[in-house]
Amino acid sequence: MDLRFTELYPEGWGITFLVEKGLHSTKSPYQRIDVLETKSHGRLLVIDGAVMLTERDEFAYHEMLTHVALFSHPCPEKVLVIGGGDGGAVREIARHSCVKEIALVDIDADVIEVSRRFFPQVASGFNDERVKVLTEDGVEFVKRAEPGSYHVIVVDSTDPVGPAVGLFEKPFFEACFRALTEDGIFVAQSGSPYFQLELVGKSHRTAREVFPQAATYTAQTPSYGGLWSFVVGSKLHDPKRPIRDDETVLKQLKYYNPRVHEAAFALPNYILKATGQIEG
Ligand code: AG3
């Protein structure tokens, strides 16, 4: 008999993994966390029934979430990550030697602990001495942050249900704008173009209202059902153009390269329409 895990998307389709065994299940004060050993994708982290990452393809999401903004900035010394308690985003950011400080703020200490224990390769960035981890509400943290204190803010949230709802709202984008330096860049995961197209559109429009430059880009993330979207807002630098080519970082990467960076902003018509960039 095959054991299976399916993340069922709202319209009644989903993504299925054959499961070797369950490794861990826990209910934190905020959400349910499961770790499964799959047949095809190594370990799988699930939060409240939604796929967060697999060992096999987490690189695509984490590289594209972080390096587009980081390579668009000439010198991102101070970086803030909101969410991302698994550590994958921090691991990618820590590859850049120009980064001097990384603060990670995740509301759920249990996610960090589970990742350290079951996903040591993903959580490896937590061992970097530039990283400071805080377990508190990301929205409140950014609201209180000293204006102009971060060069890049990366939002690695779960879906907009439960504790992550506020991370998709305009007041949070505005708080990030204030917390960024004058040439700061904001980037957030903005949902699946297949099953959250409204969210992709809303995130894009919100970023446009708050930042002088804003754009949506995509990457292939098979474990999230195909294509995934990200929204980037920038105060000065063009987020569509990489302006550093740090070879020591680039040669470590499995997905991102400067041509992928530029190409990721080329969007299919249905996403251009959903984000209000073409009529229809
Ligand atoms: N980012 C998870 C993206 C949301 C996935 N949603 C879904 N499968 N319904 C956080 C985990 C990666 N660091």
Could you say which small molecules are bound to this protein? 1-{4-[(3-aminopropyl)amino]butyl}guanidine
Specify the number of helices.
9
What number is the mean pLDDT? 97
- Report the C-alpha radius of gyration, rounded: 18 Å
Query: What percent of residues adopt helix (DSSP H or I)?
Result: 25-40%
Structural class of the secondary elements?
Answer: alpha/beta
The beta-strand count equals: 12
Looking at the overall shape, the CATH architecture of the largest domain is: 3-Layer(aba) Sandwich
Outline the low-pLDDT stretches: none
Verbal overview:
The chain has 9 helices and 12 strands. It is of the alpha/beta class. The chain has 2 domains: 3-54, Spermidine Synthase, Chain: A, domain 2; 58-274, Vaccinia Virus protein VP39 (Rossmann fold). Strands 8-7-6-9-10-12-11 form a 7-stranded mixed β-sheet, sandwiched between helices. Strand 9 (150-156), helix 5 (170-179) and strand 10 form a beta-alpha-beta unit. The longest helix is centred in the N-terminal third of the chain and has 15 residues, at 58-72. The mean pLDDT is 97. The structure holds 1-{4-[(3-aminopropyl)amino]butyl}guanidine. 1-{4-[(3-aminopropyl)amino]butyl}guanidine is lined by residues 7, 50-53, 84, 86, 88, 156, 158-159, 189, 224.
